[in-house]
Amino acid sequence: MKINPIHSFDLSLDEMRAIQHSLRQQIRLTPYLGQPRLVAGVDLAYFPDNQQAVAVIAIMDYASKQLVETVHCQDTVSQEYIPGFLAFRELPLFLKAWEQVQSEPDLVFFDGNGMLHPERVGLATHASFFIDKPTIGIAKKHFMGEYREPGPERGSMERIWDQGEIIGAVLRTQDGVKPIYVSVGNHVDLPLSLRLALHFVGKESRIPEIIRRADMLTRQIRKQMLDSLESQK
DNA sequence: GCGACAG
DNA sequence: ATCTTGTCGC
């Protein structure tokens, strides 16, 4: 996979804001994918020291939902978490893992927001400028924007607004269960993002399977590393 | 000043 | 995100 090195990291708040501001104008909501064949899900897990982390990319077949490839990368994460700047913390490690991907995903889901962001450049959106793929953000908790509570049935959704703009949607993925927050990353529109997100929600979880698999692998790998470290004592 | 605040 | 066991409920 090819990488587009656009920015370095370890920047000041003002520099990070400036980057977000410039990227914002390059977002395209025109879907440039037909029927996706392979879809990737990304997640990170942190070690107790909060300095090391594992990034996992899980790739599955869209139609069969079978896992076709997984890659992971473990390294130090230097940038602290600052609300609104998650991308600067998590993208470097993600990109290192991305270099190892052999298959060709048509779309990438991120654990976090896309345009559901003060500058419309959340993790999923920011990532799209490095990997040049359609991206979608899936957050488990509310970050910003105003919305009405969606109905209690699976599939109910409500738009999320900010400054007169629709920046995402709250989606009820299971009857009577807490909703998730879906937003466009790049190169997709919101209705398609919602449709694709719902496609990956089975009966077992409120989180789309593509994200959940990455999340599970992330914890599994971290446990393996901690266990083998412990057994060496 | 106070509360909110993706992962 | 992470630290953590059992436990209330469908």
Automatic annotation (TrEMBL):
Belongs to the endonuclease V family. DNA repair enzyme involved in the repair of deaminated bases. Selectively cleaves double-stranded DNA at the second phosphodiester bond 3' to a deoxyinosine leaving behind the intact lesion on the nicked DNA. The keyword Nuclease applies. This is Endonuclease V. The record marks Y81 as: Interaction with target DNA. Its cofactor is Mg(2+). Mg(2+) binds at D43, D111. One of its GO terms (molecular function) is endonuclease activity. InterPro entries: Endonuclease-V. It holds the Pfam family Endonuclease_5. The gene is nfi. It catalyses: Endonucleolytic cleavage at apurinic or apyrimidinic sites to products with a 5'-phosphate. Its main location: cytoplasm. It is found in: Cytoplasm. CDD domains: Endonuclease_V. The lineage of its organism: Bacteria, Bacillati, Bacillota, Bacilli, Bacillales. It comes from the Bacteria. Keywords: Cytoplasm, DNA damage, DNA repair, Endonuclease, Hydrolase, Magnesium, Metal-binding, Nuclease. Its EC number is 3.1.21.7.
